[in-house]
Amino acid sequence: MAAMTLRGTLRDMSLRLPGTIVVRPPTTGPWFDVPKAAEYRKAAFPPTALQSPTVFMVDLNSVYPVADVLREYLVTLAREIRDGVHGSVSLVVDTRNLSIRHELGYLADAYQLPLFLASPQSPLSVAEAEPAGLTPSESETLEVVAQMGGRVTAPNLAKRLDLKHTAALNRLTPLVEKGFLYRKRRPGRTADLFGDPRFPDADEVAERILDATKTELPAAEQETLASHLRDHPAAEGLPDNF
């Protein structure tokens, strides 16, 4: 019975997404006040670099912002994310209003912003959010990165898409520059890691797993698990008996 409980616990932990901060503007209905939009943004998203991948989800389903408010509230925030002001962050906007979705898509394309639109079918599924303002090639690359667990190296992507290393790197770099991916540089000849902030950091997943199982495993088995996670940081690499 304990083994069944443990396996379920680990599966739940490995599928968790990064911390998600849901923000709803403190107003409803038509939203015209641009100075207030700036005030709300600064209060909700102070310029603090978060230590691990995080998702900002902005819920606009109860408000109808005009274009100038969208620019002040979301374009400014997305620019800050692109420039690294908030660390490794993804911005997801949840709205079912087609006019607002179209305007956000236009703004993301015009200003080269790292912006995702929540899926109308699965608004709470961050991994299913649709990137806005990307070229078909960039969208394909980001989707493949997501299929590969949200963490890739250029050699990994080259093998997956049957590309040369340089071509794979050229696909990843613009997504970093636009803020859809972050790049973790690694020493020596180890290939740099490209990560999608919508997916959990491998080290963070390992810590969550160890924390969740410390009361379920004997000390010796806990040490074995910790050793395995250090050698295979991805949660998917766990052996069948864990």
Describe this structure in words.
The protein is an alpha/beta fold and 242 residues long. The protein has helices at residues 2-15, 34-44, 67-82, 98-111, 136-147, 154-161, 165-177, 202-213, 219-231; strands at residues 19-23, 29-31, 50-59, 63-65, 87-94, 115-117, 130-132, 151-152, 182-184, 193-195. It has a domain at 18-132: 2-Layer Sandwich (Transcription Regulator spoIIAA), CATH 3.30.750. 47% of the residues lie in helices and 18% in strands. A 5-stranded mixed sheet has the order 1-3-5-6-7. A 3-stranded antiparallel sheet has the order 8-10-9. Strands 2-4 form a two-stranded parallel sheet. α1 runs antiparallel to α8, α3 (67-82) crosses α4 and α5 packs across α7. The longest helix is centred in the N-terminal third of the chain and has 16 residues, at 67-82.
